[in-house]
Design a protein that fits this description.
heterodimer, A: 1089 residues, mainly beta, 22-stranded antiparallel β-barrel, 56 strands, elongated, B: 552 residues, Serine Threonine Protein Phosphatase 5, Tetratricopeptide repeat, globular
Chain lengths: 1089, 552
Amino acid sequence: MKIKITNHSKKDRHLLQKMLWTVIFVLATQLTFAQALTVKGKVQDSQGLSLPGVSIILHGTTNGTITDADGNFTITVPSSKSALVCSFIGMETQTIVVGNKLSQVITLYDSSVMLNEVVSIGYGSVKKSSLTGAVSKLTAESLAERPIARVETALQGTMPGVEVRTTTGQPGEDIQIRVRGAASVNASSDPLYVVDGAPVSSLSGINPADISTIEVLKDAASTAIYGSRGSNGVVIVTTKIGKSGKSGKPVISFDANYGSQTLERKMDMLSATEWMNFRIKYNDATYLAAAAAKGVTNASISDPSALRMTNIGGTMTAPNYNVVNDDRWFQNMNAATQSSHTYTASTDKLSLLDWQDNFFRNAPTQQYNVSVSGGTENTKYMFSGGYLDQQGIAIGTGYSRMNIRANIESKINKWLSAGLIIAPTYSTTGGGGLANGKDSKTHLTLASTPVSDPGVGYMTNVEPNTRYLWAGSTSSPTYIMQTNLSNANTLLLNATSFIRIEPFKGFKVQATASTNYRNSDGETYNYSSAGSAWASGEGVNSSGGHTTSSRIDNSLFQTVANYDNTFGKHTIGAMFGFSVEQSSGGYTTNQTFNKPFPNDALPESFNGSVLAVGTDLVTKLTPNRLESFFGRAQYDYAGRYFISGSIRRDGGSVFGMNNKWGTFPAISGAWNISEESFFKNLKVDAIDLLKLRASYGVTGNNAISQTATYALLSAITYAGQAGYSISTAGNPNLGWEKANSTDLALDLGLFGNRVQLSLDYYTKATTNLLYQVPVPGATGFTLQWDNLGDIDNRGFEIELNTRNLTGDFKWNTTFNLGYNENTVKRLGATNTPVYSGFDNTNTSNVLQVDLPMNTFYMYEAVGVWKTQAEIDAYSAAHNGTAVTFNGTKFKPGDIRYNDINNDGVITTADKTYLGSPTPKFTYGLTNNFEYKNFDLSVLITAQSGGKILGILGRALDRPGMGALSNVLGNWRNAWWSETEQGDGKTPYILSSTTGTTIDSRWLYSSDYLRIKNVSLGYRLPSLPKIYSSARVYVSVENLAILTSYTGGFSPEAANSGVSGAPGGSNSLGIDYGGYPTSRVISMGINVTF
Amino acid sequence: MKHINIIMKLCMTVGVIFIASCSSDFLSLSPNDQLQINNSYKTPKQAEQAIVGIYSNLRSLSNDEYLYLSEVRSDNAWSNPKTDGLREYSEIGTFRAGSDITTFNLVWNEWYKVILDANTAIEKIPAITFITQSTKDQFLGEAYFLRGWAYFELARLFGNIPIIDRPMTAAEVKTIGQSTAVDVYKNIVIPDISKAEAMLPISSAMKTSEGASATVYGRADKIAAKAMLGRIYMTMAGFPINDAVAQDSAEVKLKGVIDFSVANGDKYWAKDSTEWKKQWISENNNKYSIFAIQYRSGGAGNMSIFNFSPALPPTYTTLRIFGNQIYIDKTLMYKLSQLNSAGKPDARVYNTTILTGYAAEPNWPAYSNLVQSLTLSDGTVINNVLSNSMFYKYTNSIRKRAALGYTANIETAMKDYNDWSVNYPVIRLEDVQLMYAEVLLNKHSDVAGAIGIVNKIRTREGANLVSTALSVPDALLAVKTERRIELCGEGVRWFDLVRWNDWKKAIGDKFDSYNTSDVDKNNIKDGRYLYPIPQSQMQVQPGLYVQNPDYN
């Protein structure tokens, strides 16, 4: 054996030397074998369409042919016992014994074995089996089974190491993707999106139905080819195009689905009756405290309202509603409460409200797509149109999108092809931003008082009703959502054209020009009737009206040359290219400040002669330019040894004069042990594939402002004079953020590839973090961009695919698991911690060396001081020190904190580290079942090891919040007295030690397990005259969730962090009333004609 | 062969694009939507725009410093301690505020921003060619005035602070520790403002870069510098520096201002009480103040008015006003409500300096003041002192303006409730006169001279005159009381209490008079005549700065 290999190698080297001269000859001689039997045949796919380019190889030899444009082939074989191996990219390989059939029709089925897939690796593609990097892939088939409104949704739970987080359930909003953890602090941690070869800023305009494949490049060896934008991973989306063929028969497909969305999880708030009960207790307590402060010794909860007012030094002409009760409450109280109070019985029925039921609705969603694809001998095409209309579960919100796409590729002659993609998208968003985060209507829905005056119902504090006297000042969030405007319309135009020459086989040069144009118009308007000041008249509440109009256009020009060929056992691939990109834009904002519109009739008309209109106009923003050169070489010997190296050089306009260019190399290799003869000699039948992969690469991140490097002045006026004041310090040395990554992996195929396992271990060390470093105020600034700081990410990923049953009843399972931990290694020159949170003074998170990014740092609540005796005992155990919180003495009913330094008093020194907002583990599990024409798939996603701060608790769950608004359900079991201690966790409502202090009472585990999707489909019997295939399905998205998070709707929510927070405001894991996720039950049909 | 030709052409095209794209210009983009420092400071016009830029940093300070760190901190204002949320003014007023209060950091940063812009101007302007040297001197003088003033405020607020006297990189700033307050006064405050006094013309001679009169812009002139020096020397003469020599310098400067006023037809002096009231009206900006922070509607207005005002109904303003619950302190209220022998109140008080309430309006509840009892220092108990009166001095309400004969609607030009075109006085003649009265008493025991100044003011306002037969301490008390009434709401009181070293007792008395368990006199610690070095500044470079005593 050994000698043979050596001989081969010599011959191969010889071939390599001459490869350019011999390539055509080699190809020509492939078809020159002449033998006894001639077999003719046709290859088609499962839908009966002919397949051109299928490789037909005589088993045990290298002799073979490929099918022509109509799928036909002719081959001569030695005997009737000969077998033909038919293989085609993306299809299951079939071996057919010739027998006596000299005319064959062979049907190839789509491959479920992913090893034969072709995978995009950026500016090129490779077979999955020769992959040396870490790339995950999703195909159109898995997208089709499940109706989704957005592309990113498809990625959740289906790829290890790709964390998809629906931070808001608002229709049309971007979904957050993190590939192998967050690698940046101040610059963006979003991956780079590449659609049909052109980088775009978001996937929001893409119609999922148009997508052929989605690949996520995860390790640096794969992403380094995108250089200065590769640090956070790359998501490559490829859209569909037809197959060329002589028949020219088009495939027309149509799909439609209709769904109904409902609130996934209702929050536990007090019911109207519970709130009245709570309010009576609150008023009693407030009264007794106020009377005691006035020196009244005989106050009692049985005192009638007038006496209560007298005892607190007031009169009933100006009642204090925190002291006097509403007599009408008592109809709903139990006998004990009734008998302990003095009131005038009333039959007036107050409106008892459940705001969540009123605010969240059953919202329909519908989606229709039609496409025509196909091809003639020289032209492939796909035309599609899609329409999505999704109403939001929060009343008044919604999203609609219209997509049109034309993909055409034409082979002009033997060596020249050209193509064009035009894909306009028009979308509208309603209610945008009104129902997500602090003080949003979702927040107010929870907080709104669940009681209103008789007949008023949910129309509280809006025209024609005044405020319920015992309620807060909030106006009906439902009515506001129904009435006020907050709309945005976006036109996205994506156009790409290319020309490709192929002077000889295997060598291609493609020049691509692409433009992505986005035009957005937004408007907001508040109607007078939807505000508490409605009675002041029309127009009064119309402040805050604004319109904005912005445009961004990204253009790209790139030329890429590829050479791929195989010589005997050597397969080589080479790529070289360069690209130039520019992003530019401008905007206009018209805003009325406090000045009302004359009336509410023309909310979109900003007439400067009537209104004080502030206009902000920038016709041309500073462009962002990037210039790049890149290349890659791959070599594969006999399917055993693979090596790939790439390099990219990027020059970016966003960086400082002294630091414009960066170089990003990568190298990776793989060893397919199972192809080694020694391994084959071991005869381990169970193992079909055993492959090791390793890679190393350098990537960058350039996601900072175009002007961060410059010292800038901003225009001001003072005393009516125009002037300029320094706005930023500038940093001419500002450069790339670099990540050095390694990946070690093992691919295993067992039992006829029925079990496929991939294990990846990776490290990603980010250095020169682009970081807005806090600087002393004495500089005149608070923050300054710099390259300071290091972060390490490391983790592992497991991907397991099994085909459990393969007969009539098929059962496939895909399981993936991603583990990631990150550690801050260095911060600035002095490792000074950076504190952040919901606001800059009351911080909850810290960026600190040796801890995970944005670790929660706060007081740890360990229950409630139940009795004075408990406090006294604690004091006695600490030398009689008064037990205080920042100087204020604790009283029974106050929140008790962990005294970290055990000195008997709670001060800022007792704040402690309480976990990370980023989950450590993310899991996904898909089970697919197929029986005859039925298919069923179940997707389960989960995450664990992270925390979420439900800072909504600051409004709904804190001592001192009062009882004007509704409160979280745990206040049923609050501390009221030493004899009514409650659940031991919920404090006394009148407790005054901690107020809005952020403590761990609001910190929850963000672990969850969600049955993300269940889809049941039925393939209708084929009726070739009417349609070639049709499938109907029922699908449930977000069927069930298991989580202990009660501080908000969804454990994935993130909003309301300070804008300058390290990693972006969403990275702090703070939820201040996020737009909830919805459960979607939908049904649909896919038909192909 | 044909193919080869085409390939050659394509390669050439590609090569051309390649070379074109390699030019360095492609990546060296200057921001085209913002100005850069390096391209500015080249012409007299740009120099003036840079000077205007320094002034623009003052916009928030009337609110952040003069209202919150002086009025609210002093015994002029009272705000009930909040238990249900963080209201920084309440924490400051009750002495519970620690170094993490944002307002402290804001004020620190705002003054250092003034210093940054001034340092850059002082560095760049000398290289610019001016046709008239006096204009160049004036611009530089303004920059020196603003820088010196910034350091004065920082030193009296925070004590020991770093001196940054030229444009520096962040790395350099991180190596500069604190200088003592005394060194700040001696090494930068007094040199800068003395330079300004020498370089600046008087207001009527202030010019723009084009040579037009700059008087209407209310920029600092020679007299402003002189008055400011008077205030600085008075501050140095008092607690905690107690520099007796400084009082001599103060006397010269203060007298200089008074003499200038007299020599120029009683400039800055309102001739009667109506005129006095009208000085707070927008139209009279700069008529009576020696130096004021300038506010113009349209985005550069005064925001302190909103923050001073708890709530105002539609007949007062069409704007939404729901500011803070900051009220006139009871002892001050008692002093303000004194009637003269004819049974009339001081003309300065009702509906001018303060508003005691208003009747209900459609959809607007009445503002009914509350009453509390007050125990005076002699033990007398005064019943029914209004406890919820609001500051009203700068509020150009429709009603106040109408009462003084102004009918123009100033609210149409306002962008929002933070956009009042009403100046905030930094230093006024009465302030200078009363400081001079202090010098007369302290240095010359000149009771008649000092009380003469007090009575000149009181005569104008129709208040009872003060006896000239008082002892020096009693006369000093009268001067202090007059300062409190005359300058109420102007951000002067806290700094007066500190330099007189009366602050500890005054705050203790205030706490006692409100008798609420939520304030703790233990918080009035010895070191708290200063504010803490803001926590953000302590954290940004640990070990660089030392925290002030009594802020752990």
